[in-house]
Amino acid sequence: MLTIALPKGRLQKPALERFARAGVVPDEEPGISRRLIIPAGSAARFVLLKDGDVPLYVERGAADLGVCGIDQVLESAADLLTPIDFGFGRCRLCLAAPGGKSVTAELGRSLRVATKYPRLSSQWFVRRGVPVDLVHLSGSVELAAVSGLTDAIVDLVESGRTLEENGLVVIDEILQVTARLVVNRASYRLKVEELLPLLEKLG
Amino acid sequence: MQPATPLPGTQDLLFEAASRLRRCEATLCGRFEEKGYAEVIPPAIEAADVFGPEAFRALDRSGRLIALRADFTAQVARIAATRLAGISPLRLYYRGSIVRRVAPDSGPVHERLQAGCELVGAAGPEADAEILALAAASLHALGIRGRISLGSTGYFSALATAAGASERLAAALNDAVDRKDLPTLRTLCEREVAAGKARDAILLLAQPPRPQTEARELLARAETLAPSEDALRALRRVSAALAAARDLGAELEVDLGEVRGLGYYTGIVFNLYAAGSPRPVGGGGRYDTLLGRFGDPRPAVGFSLDLDALVPLAC
C-alpha cells in the first residue's frame, strides 16, 4: 500500500491527471466530501494536505511519496528524493519591489524584505553579501512592499499580473519552480517493487 | 527561567522505554563480542578538530576549541591510531550517544543513541564483507528484517575527477545523485560536463537500485563505462565485497548512487533500511585515510546503528 501526499491547491488537478494516466485514480473526487484520506483502489491512497506540508509528511514517512513545488522542497530543507520533474505548476520565485525604488547598497541600511520563503531568501541574499531584515509573512506578501512595511518582497510570480496591478516590478529571479515528485528515502528502498513501476509510468 | 522539558532534539527515556533500549544494547553487544569485537568507551568531549563542522563546539577556559562527541568512528580512529597504533587487525565496538548539529550551518542540535563496530587494519574485500555481515546480523539479532543498500563514494569521487569537475560542480552532482534527481543531474551534465564516458557513467548513478541478483549486470555495465583506473578499481571493489558477502541474512541491493555517508568515507558505503523507520536505521563504509589524520595511516571499515530508530522496531 502506497500513501500519496496530494497538495490541495493549484497543483492538485494536474497532479491527479498524472496519477490517473499512471493508473492510480482516487475512489472519490477530492473535495466532494470532507474526507482527508481517499483510497485509490487497494494499492494506494491519497492524503490531502496544504502543499507546504507535503515535504514534512513524506520526510517523516506518513506518506511514501507526494507532489509539491521544488520551492517547498527547498524551503522545508526536508531530506527527500526528487526523482521526477512534472513540469506543471511552473512559476518563478522572484525578488520584486515598487517600480523606481532603490533596493541596492545605496540604501545605507539593511534591505527590508517580506516573504513566505525565509530560508531560500536568506540563502540568496547571504550568497550575494546583501544584508537583509527578513519579515516572515503567511500571505498577501505584495502588500508588505506596497504599504511600506518592507522595501521589497520575495514571492512566487506566475503571470506577473498581481505584481503589475500593485505597481511592483521583478528585480531578480531566485528560483525556477515546477512541481516535483518527492519520495521518502526509506520507502524508495523498502517498497521498491511497488514504487518503481509507478515511477516509470509517472516519469 | 528553568526549562521544564528536555531541549528539542533530546529526550528522557523512562521505565519501559529505558529497559527496551538496554535490552537492545545488550543483544547487540553480545553479538559484537561473539564476533570478536571489544568495547571501547571514548569520552563525551574531545578536541574539536577530531570531528567535522557538524559538532557542537565551545571554548574551554584556555581558549581551546572543544566539542561534544559528534561521531564515534572518529574517536575510535583516534584511539586506534594512538594507543593501539600498529596492532592489526583491531575489532572494536562502542555504544552511547552523539550530539550533532541538524545542519552544519544552523543552530539546533540533536542527540542520537548509537552502537557500532570498527574493523581497523584490514584492507581487503573480506573485511568489507565482515562488516556488512555483522551489520546484517545485528538487525537480525533484534528481530528486524532490513535491507542494505550498497554503493561506493570512491566510485563517485573517481567519476567526478575523471569529469574534471570543480569542487562546486562535484558537490552539486553529488546532491543530485543523492536525491535521485535525474532531471537536475541531466541539466548539470549537459551544461557543465564534457560528453564522454565519465558523463554517461554519472548519469547512470541516478538509476534505481538493483537487487543483489541483478547487481552483476549493473556493475558490468558500469565497468564498460569506467572512465579511469580509479573508477574501475572502485567498481571491482564493490563486486568483490558483494561476492564475499553472500548469505548475509538480509536483502542487499547495489545502488551506485548511494553516495550518502560521512565525509571521510573512501570506498564502499552502505545504508541500512527497515520497515517502520522513515530514515536509514544505520550505515557504514570504508575510511582508509581517517587514521592517517591521527598519525597512523591504516585502512579501516565500520558501521553504526541508529538505536533511536531501531529500538521501537525491535521485538
Q: Tags for this entry?
A:
heterodimer; A: 203 residues; alpha/beta; D-Maltodextrin-Binding Protein, domain 2; 2 domains; 6-stranded mixed β-sheet; 8 helices; B: 315 residues; alpha+beta; BirA Bifunctional Protein, domain 2; 10 helices; 22% strand; globular
Notes on the structure:
The complex is a heterodimer of chains A (203) and B (315). By secondary structure, chain A is α/β, with parallel strands linked by helices. Helix content of chain A is 31%, strand content 32%. Chain A has 2 domains: 2-89 and 178-202, Periplasmic binding protein-like II (D-Maltodextrin-Binding Protein, domain 2, 3-Layer(aba) Sandwich); 91-177, Periplasmic binding protein-like II (D-Maltodextrin-Binding Protein, domain 2, 3-Layer(aba) Sandwich). In chain A, the strands form 2 sheets. Chain A has a 6-stranded mixed β-sheet. In chain A, strands 8-7-9-6-10 form a 5-stranded mixed β-sheet, sandwiched between helices. The longest helix of chain A has 11 residues, at 192-202. The relative contact order of chain A is 0.20. The mean pLDDT of chain A is 94. The mean pLDDT of chain B is 93. Chain B has 2 domains: 1-123 and 288-315, BirA Bifunctional Protein, domain 2, CATH 3.30.930; 147-283, 2-Layer Sandwich (BirA Bifunctional Protein, domain 2). In chain B, helix 1 (15-34) packs antiparallel against helix 3 and helix 5 (167-178) runs antiparallel to helix 6. Chain B is α+β, with helices and mostly antiparallel strands and 315 residues long. Chain B has a 9-stranded mixed β-sheet with strand order 1-5-6-12-11-10-7-9-8. In chain B, strands 2-4-3 form a 3-stranded antiparallel β-sheet, with no helix packed on it.
**How many discrete structural domains of chain B?**
2
Give the biggest sheet of chain B. Answer: 9 strands, mixed
Q: What do the pLDDT scores of chain B average to?
A: 93
Which oligomerization state do the chains in this entry correspond to? heterodimer
Portion of residues in beta strands of chain A equals 25-35%
Which H/E pattern describes the elements of chain A? EHEEHEHEEEHEHEHEEHH
The name of the CATH superfamily of the largest domain in chain B reads Bira Bifunctional Protein, Domain 2
Question: Level of helix content of chain B?
Answer: 25-40%
Overall 3D shape of chain B: globular
By DSSP, the count of extended strands of chain A is: 11
Q: What does the largest sheet of chain A look like? A: 6 strands, mixed
Overall 3D form of chain A: elongated
Structural category of chain B: alpha+beta
Order of helices and strands of chain B: HEEEEHEEHEHHHHEHHEEEEH
What's the end-to-end separation of chain B, in Å?
41 Å
